[in-house]
């Protein structure tokens, strides 16, 4: 029994080593054994990897346009100011040690305990975390290695760090590190950072300022005191706490320093190495590399990379040149009306051009990323796209009417200016004219929550409390959307309902031959049919609506936006004016407005004015050499049918046919096969009518009963909805009169052997069959003048005689054409009509 009992603990120990913690400890031990056991090999290999020339200067990365050949920028800054270790205050060195490597003076380049923790974290999380790097390792990584996170690179990092510790003293290693770390804003090293952020030499840094700089190596962009002062303050106070925890400062020093605000110099110098026209684009690129690709700004600037972007240098130049012209913007120049614009590819999301403001400075406020209220440019996203998704079409009728929405704080939306209300109109008309009341009505019908859900799919998220405001239908947002977000959202309509996340980096090529390529990030937001129908309406908005000034020679769809500004002193002012438009391949977004809008500084324009006009100028230059493409209807999508128009029928007729047995009933119809007709007949009052047929044709045959002389009416109706139109005219039965042979005078008898008409006064006289003209009975050889219809003798002296062959002629006693007639052959009128005739077009007033 004792032997059996003794085996149970053994089983527990065995299961422990087979578990995850056993594996972790085993791997950690193995790593340490290999590291220590192969120390000689590591030293040799690590020594060969150290290129001491790199300790003096890092390799600058180069940025290229989308073709991969046109160089647009070289990153980094020439402001690398080396400083010796003895010039750096002790509290500054202590701040970096407490934050980055509190065992710096105790290890030989690697920290086994920290490495073990990092390996455990990697295995548990399944990721390749950086973790536990000493200051010496960071120096090795930043200067000698690429930045891919692999275990092999970690091994190389350790090898180099151990060799650095062999060759250099701790103060030398710290000096190299403080002169080489990336401090953000294109600055490298403690001296350059000190002068850039605080305008002073490193020797003059206070305790709190030194702690602020010590916060930067972890994330230079996130903890930048200029761009993110709140983040910088929190991180600085954490550094001070770590300094106190590790015995570098007293608790009192910590508390006093933590109470002080983060202060930076007012006008830090700009980075002059990047051309002014590319600055906003390059700054956006560095942020994207850090947030999306996990490449820090330091690595990006000094990794010796070849960075290929989506920039179209021609489009960027066109945008920059137009932004330099004050005439393209409303208002004065003090302060300037600000603006931002982006152009991106509809199929990839690649940003081809960007302006972050009219006077953008490096690492300044990029207004292409700044949220402003979008106005009516939000209507297609939150109002009409969700409606189309529900099965509406551009010809669905919407209501543009004055209405108070009691559920939403008794809000009564109004149309812009004094437009009034149009009543029932098509969705297309509402979009083209940018009708506010119709947009609100549509969102209310679709459902506010539905509209908000689609707005989020388009990449625009309102504030939580705004999700309950129907004013979202008109772009009423506290913060709004950025020009990049608006371009990204509208690209969906040009890409069959698919949206790609906006980005600028196409590929990054490393020095060692590796690379990082873009990862496709495409989502289906709406159906291809919705995207196509929206494009049709937005094309109409550009052709005939508020966006006419944006046209530039290519097929274009787009929408204007005007965010109003009203106060007690200002009526019908504008806060922001927008235009967002797209071709099949490119989408552009632009806004204008003051950074701070008030009663003195506000716009007096709309999105259809200066923003649309500037959009047109930029796009015309940017797309000079681009193929002109038309929007194509996606496969399987049918064209939207216009609404059924019920005809007004006023030509209904009912005639008995030649047999006398049927009544042929006919009316003017329409070619729209959605229109049908209901035919009624009645005796007496129309209220007693009976329907005798429903038909799609414009005719019907009824049986004729002479004893019942019916009256007929026809009513058109919409076969899809059953809606009836107006009743036609009333048609009574018409019986045709029998036709008589009028070739002979009923009182005159003709000689059956001689069918020619004889002179009634001389029945014995026969006409010459070869000469049908009536001759003078006294002069049978005389012929009448063909230009004179009178058959009398021209020498006759009886001017009152009437032509016996003209039954309409009346005697006048004058022998001239009476003044009530026109002689069409001469082209002269009598002056009583419009003075014109078919002969000459001119009239004559006798």
Map the helices and strands.
Layout: H1 2-18, H2 20-37, H3 39-49, E1 62-64, E2 71-74, H4 90-100, H5 112-125, H6 135-144, H7 151-167, H8 170-180, E3 182-184, E4 187-188, H9 190-198, H10 207-214, H11 229-245, H12 251-258, H13 279-293, H14 297-302, E5 306-309, H15 313-323, E6 338-345, E7 351-355, H16 379-389, E8 397-400, E9 423-426, H17 427-432, H18 436-446, H19 448-457, H20 483-494, E10 498-500, E11 505-509, E12 515-517, E13 522-524, H21 528-544, E14 557-565, E15 573-582, E16 586-593, H22 610-622, E17 653-656, E18 662-666, E19 675-682, E20 690-695, E21 699-703, E22 711-718, E23 731-734
Parallel strand pairs: 1-5, 17-23
Antiparallel strand pairs: 1-2, 3-4, 5-11, 6-7, 6-16, 8-9, 10-13, 11-12, 14-15, 15-16, 17-18, 18-21, 19-20, 19-22, 22-23
Helix pairs in contact: 2-5, 3-7, 4-10, 4-11, 6-7, 6-8, 10-11, 11-12, 15-22, 16-18, 16-19, 16-21
Structure description:
With 846 residues, this protein is α+β, with helices and mostly antiparallel strands. The protein contains 22 helices and 23 strands. The strands form six sheets. The chain has a seven-stranded mixed beta sheet with strand order 20-19-22-23-17-18-21, with no helix packed on it. Strands 2-1-5-11-12 form a five-stranded mixed beta sheet, with helices on one face. It has a five-stranded antiparallel beta sheet with strand order 7-6-16-15-14, with helices on both faces. A hairpin with a 7-residue loop joins strand 19 (675-682) and strand 20 (690-695). Helix 3 (39-49) packs across helix 7 (151-167) and helix 6 packs across helix 7 (151-167). The protein is elongated, with a radius of gyration of 46 Å. The protein starts with a helix and ends in a 112-residue tail after the last strand. The model is unreliable at 1-15, 42-46, 755-760 and 769-846 (pLDDT under 50).
């Amino acid at each position: 029994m004792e032997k059996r009992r003794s085996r149970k603990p053994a089983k527990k120990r065995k299961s422990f080593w087979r578990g995850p913690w056993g594996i972790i400890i085993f791997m950690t031990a193995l790593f340490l054994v290999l590291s220590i056991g192969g120390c000689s090999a590591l030293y040799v290999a690590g020594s060969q990897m150290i290129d001491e020339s790199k300790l003096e200067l890092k390799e600058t990365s180069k940025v290229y346009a989308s073709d991969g050949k046109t160089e647009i920028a070289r990153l980094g800054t020439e402001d690398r100011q080396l400083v010796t270790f003895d010039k750096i205050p002790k509290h500054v060195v202590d701040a970096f040690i407490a934050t980055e490597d509190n065992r710096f003076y105790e290890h030989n380049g690697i920290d086994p305990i920290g490495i073990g923790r990092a390996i455990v974290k990697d295995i548990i999380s399944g990721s390749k975390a950086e973790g536990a790097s000493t200051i010496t390792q960071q120096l090795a990584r930043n200067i000698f290695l690429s930045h891919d996170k692999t275990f092999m690179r970690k091994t190389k990092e350790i090898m180099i760090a151990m060799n650095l510790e062999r060759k250099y003293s701790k103060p030398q290693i710290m000096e190299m590190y403080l002169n080489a770390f990336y401090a953000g804003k294109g600055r490298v090293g403690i001296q350059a950072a000190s002068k850039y952020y605080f305008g002073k030499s490193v020797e003059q840094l206070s305790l709190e300022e030194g702690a602020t700089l010590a916060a930067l190596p972890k994330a230079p962009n996130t903890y930048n005191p200029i761009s993110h002062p709140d983040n910088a303050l929190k991180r600085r106070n954490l550094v001070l706490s770590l300094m106190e925890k590790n015995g570098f400062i007293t608790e009192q020093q910590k508390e006093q320093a933590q109470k002080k605000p983060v202060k930076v110099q007012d006008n830090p110098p700009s980075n002059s190495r990047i051309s002014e026209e590319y600055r906003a684009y390059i700054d956006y690129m560095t942020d994207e590399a850090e947030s999306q690709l996990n490449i820090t700004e330091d690595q990006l600037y000094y990794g010796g990379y070849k960075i290929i972007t989506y920039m179209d240098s021609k489009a960027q130049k066109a945008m920059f040149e137009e932004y330099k012209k004050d005439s393209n913007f409303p208002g004065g120049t003090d302060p300037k009306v600000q603006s931002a614009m982006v152009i991106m590819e509809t199929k990839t999301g690649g940003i081809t051009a960007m302006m972050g403001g009219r006077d953008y400075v490096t690492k300044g406020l990029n207004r292409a990323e700044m949220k402003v209220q979008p106005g009516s440019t939000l209507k297609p996203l939150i109002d009409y796209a969700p409606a189309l998704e529900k099965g509406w079409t551009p010809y669905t009728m919407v209501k543009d009417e004055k209405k108070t929405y009691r559920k939403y704080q008794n809000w009564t939306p109004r149309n812009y200016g004094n437009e009034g209300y149009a009543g029932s109109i098509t969705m297309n008309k509402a979009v083209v004219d940018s009708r506010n009341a119709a947009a609100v009505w549509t969102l209310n019908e679709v459902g506010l929550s539905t509209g908000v859900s689609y707005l989020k799919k388009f990449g625009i998220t309102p504030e939580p409390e705004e999700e309950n405001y129907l004013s979202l239908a008109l772009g009423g947002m506290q913060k709004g959307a950025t020009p990049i977000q608006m371009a990204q959202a509208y690209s969906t309509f040009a890409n069959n309902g698919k949206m790609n996340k906006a980005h600028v980096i196409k590929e990054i090529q490393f020095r060692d031959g590796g690379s990082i390529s873009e990862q496709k990030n495409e989502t289906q937001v709406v159906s291809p049919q919705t995207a196509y129908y929206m494009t049709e309406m937005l094309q109409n908005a550009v052709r005939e609506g508020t966006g006419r000034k944006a046209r530039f020679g290519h097929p274009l769809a787009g929408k204007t936006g005007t965010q109003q500004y009203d106060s007690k002193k200002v009526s019908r002012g504008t806060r922001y004016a927008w235009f967002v438009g797209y071709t099949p391949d490119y989408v552009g977004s632009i806004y204008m407005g003051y950074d701070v809008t008030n009663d003195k500084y506000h716009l007096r324009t709309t999105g259809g004015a200066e923003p649309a006009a500037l959009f047109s100028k930029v796009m015309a230059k940017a797309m000079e050499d681009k193929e002109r493409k038309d929007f194509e209807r996606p496969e399987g999508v049918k064209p939207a049918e216009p609404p059924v128009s019920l005809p007004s029928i006023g030509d209904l007729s009912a005639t008995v046919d030649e047999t006398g047995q049927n009544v042929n009933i006919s009316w003017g119809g329409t070619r729209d096969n959605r229109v049908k007709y209901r035919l009624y007949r009645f005796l007496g009052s129309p209220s007693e009518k009976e329907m005798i047929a429903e038909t799609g044709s414009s005719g019907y045959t009824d049986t004729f009963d002479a004893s019942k002389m019916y009256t007929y009416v026809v009513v058109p109706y919409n076969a899809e909805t059953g809606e009836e139109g107006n009743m036609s005219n009333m048609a009574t039965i018409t019986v045709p009169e029998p036709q008589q042979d009028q070739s002979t005078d009923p009182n005159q008898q003709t000689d059956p052997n001689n069918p020619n008409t004889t002179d009634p006064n001389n029945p014995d006289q026969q006409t010459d069959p070869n000469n049908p003209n009536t001759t003078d009975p006294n002069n049978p050889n005389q012929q009448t003048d063909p230009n004179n219809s009178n058959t009398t003798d021209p020498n006759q002296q009886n001017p009152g005689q009437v032509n016996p062959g003209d039954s309409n002629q009346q005697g006048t006693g004058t022998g001239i054409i009476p003044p009530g007639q026109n002689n069409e052959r001469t082209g002269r009128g009598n002056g009583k009509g419009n003075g014109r005739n078919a002969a000459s077009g001119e009239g004559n007033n006798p």
